[in-house]
Design brief:
The chain has two domains: 121 residues, no CATH class; 45 residues, no CATH class. It contains seven helices and six strands; from the N terminus they run ααββαββββαααα.
Length: 185
């Protein structure tokens, strides 16, 4: 992130000291009302549950609105920017996650959705297990991905969708030959 962009974000996120008490109180009210968000979606490749962005927004937005707050998530300068803004005062908190370089629009869309979800989770400090981000594993514990197996077919399906080879490598050890075949899909 360049100095100009960073300073613009810092200016936008400044909160006037005399006003911040009510803004932070509103955020605290929202956080106290959120409770537990159940995970209703499943990532078949990683066999894990998560709550999708639509469920997260449908749970959080009414609580924000009740407290005169609004959530906006525009893409600005190649970054997903999550903003929670006080409708009455304009005070705000901001989280920014910059996107990588994506040629495939489907992979870009998946990254945007993922970053929107985690940007909002981060701003509100929601407690959630990193299910589809795939917990770090000891590489020695990962199984080998072999051609002709159900797991290989799932990996191919994942890659033809919006998945990346890096995501497959988080889950499996790949031989040079298997990796070569998967990267040429």
């Amino acid at each position: 992130m360049g100095a100009t962009k960073e300073s613009e974000i810092n200016k936008m996120s400044e909160i006037e000291p005399e006003n911040n008490t009510s803004f932070y109180r509103k955020l605290a009210n929202v956080k106290s009302e959120i409770g537990t968000i159940s995970k209703d979606s499943t990532n078949p490749f990683y066999k894990s549950a998560y709550f999708d962005i639509n469920q997260l927004l449908s749970h959080v937005e009414p609580l924000l609105h009740k407290n005169s707050l609004i959530c906006l998530q525009p893409i600005e300068d190649g970054c997903v920017v999550t903003k929670i803004i006080d409708i009455n005062t304009g005070e705000r908190v901001i989280s920014t996650i910059c996107l990588g370089e994506y040629v495939d629009p489907q992979k870009l869309g998946s990254a945007i959705t993922y970053y929107r979800r985690y940007g909002l989770q981060s701003l509100l400090a929601l407690q959630a297990e990193d299910d589809d981000g795939n917990k770090a594993k000891d590489p020695k514990d990962k199984p080998w991905l072999n051609e002709g197996t159900k797991e290989y077919k799932n990996a191919v399906k994942h890659l033809l969708g919006s998945g990346t080879i890096a995501e497959v490598e988080k889950e499996y050890k790949l031989s040079k030959e298997v990796k070569e075949k998967l990267t040429t899909l």
